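Input record (one chain):
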Amino acid sequence: MAALGPGGNWEQALGSMTLVLVRISGLMVFAPVFSSAAIPPRIKAGFVLAVSFLLAPVVAGFPGAHAELGILPVLGELSVGLVLGLTLSLLFEALEFTGQVLGFQFSFSLVNLMDPNSPVSTPLLGQMFGLLGTLVVLGAGLHRTMLEALFRTFATAPVGSVRLDPRAGWALVTMAGGIFAAALQLSAPVVAATLLAEMAVALAGKLAPQLPVMMIGVPLKTMLGYGVLIGSLALWPHWIEGHFAALLDDAGRLLARSAGTT
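The corresponding structure, as predicted from the sequence alone:
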């Protein structure tokens, strides 16, 4: 790629920078943490412009790169950020669904919060687990891993060479089916403990009908569930990091497959 300066190929340089900008913008729109409404749009725009300006001269020189503007190249670059962002967001969807499942176990089915970062109401525990996932991502430096993975895509899927692959969409739908299984895996200890508490209270009510079963059952189930949940939270950061790495590998394979369809 020609240098950005007098006598340089400005058309090719701007084309390369535009395609890089579209790919990075996809990550900022769809990826967890980066897509948060808590980050001002001006900061996102400045970050995308600065990174695009720095990367464009480098990635345009990779083998297989085609810095030519067009509808298909722009859609292909947008699909890179879309696939990477949506794949990683499945982890946070699993955490929120876990909160919804545990909310029923804790008798919080009617307790919802209006999340300022979302136009819809979210379950109380779902929002708490989402914040926990964000803290784990930031504390473990996984947000830098996301950026590093995005930068590596310019080598595996050169700029301008990616085309929309219908198989990637079907793979995302299949992966989304794992949200339910992941939520059950996280909530299984609490669900088992609260189920045992309900069985014990029901048995006590049969043996002693004079006991106020309704007044005892809900507090006992909630306190026992909270105790088990607090004990199991120590294992959640390791689980989050492991699933984050697995989803990142799946996204890399999908992008490599899309680059191979050109």
